[in-house]
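Hi R.,

Here's the chain you asked about this morning:
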Amino acid sequence: MRDRKNKSKLINLLKGKPLSLTSRLFLSHLVVMSVAISILVIVGKTASPIFFSQHIEKIEGKGFYFQDVRSEVIEGFGNAWHNSTLLSVIVGGTTAGGLSFFVSRLITKPLVKIEKVTQEFARGRLSKRLPPSEIPEINRLSASFNNMASSLEGSEQRRRELVSDLTHELRTPLTIINGYLEGVTSSTIEATPDVYERMTKETRRLQRLVNDLQELSKAEAGYLPIHLAPINLYPLLSALIEKFSTQLLEELTIQLECSTNLPLVLADLDRLEQVLVNLLGNAVSYTERGSILLQASQNGDRICIAVSDTGQGIAAADLPHVFERFWRSGTASDKLNSMASQRNRQGSGIGLAISRRLVELQGGQMKVESELGKGSTFSFSLAAA
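And here is the predicted structure, written out as tokens:
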């Protein structure tokens, strides 16, 4: 009884086992070949005696006499045709079956490679890529997979860098707060209002960093709501100039170049203001003396906005990294030796990354031009309304 059950389970398993693509292609070729051979045999067996008999009649019409041996000739032809057809079916079917199996394996060979590479990819080996194929459809699939793999590899690399940078950024304020708390607890540091103010300052820095990271994450994922509307730039730019003028020292001036007749720009007012505040804030932080210029002008159907300063500038080798998260100019030793002052002046280190993404969400592209020791210009353009 138990053997019957086991046998039944095995039969059901075999029945439900899906066929591989190679087997499906091979069987499909065999089916097509079988149908073709069957039609050939049926049609040949039916029509050949008739055509042969008609041919004998034509020969008899020319004076030859087949009356006594007519049936034997037709029967001999039928036997010859039958034997030759059987031999042709065996030889041709075997050859066609072997060729069909070879072609099926040849077609599925790139797919087997794809399967192996995707399995390696799933194990975390993101550097694996698919080789090109002679089959156009599979070649396009390989190209699409390789593009996806490159994108995922880049995303994974950026994720690791982000985690590393974020850990580095969080460690310093946390260490400062922890040092003050341990000193106050052990009475080695007097609990003065100045100490509490310093801890509060570090706490605000942590909060600002977390908020910036959350906003950057939403911006890069496309979750930040962008409400485009026609905006008059002049009042916005004038208000920003007035706001930043109160923060400048005597050695630094800020100016506005914007026509009152400038066409309306299609943008999100809050996000555009956020971008400009960040660019102007960076210009103020990096410019000790000289001037800061905020410009807005029309270029065809685009409105160009630029923030220029006469500050310390950026080295040419550093320009490609300006919009990366947590990137700051200077060598690693410079950063370590002046960590506190750098952080106080440069914020969370992701403001430019947020600004660039906000500009992109509004249909623009941000770029930077800079020369070390002479200043920088951050510019972008948006569509005119």
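One quick note: The longest strand covers residues 290-299.

Cheers,
M.
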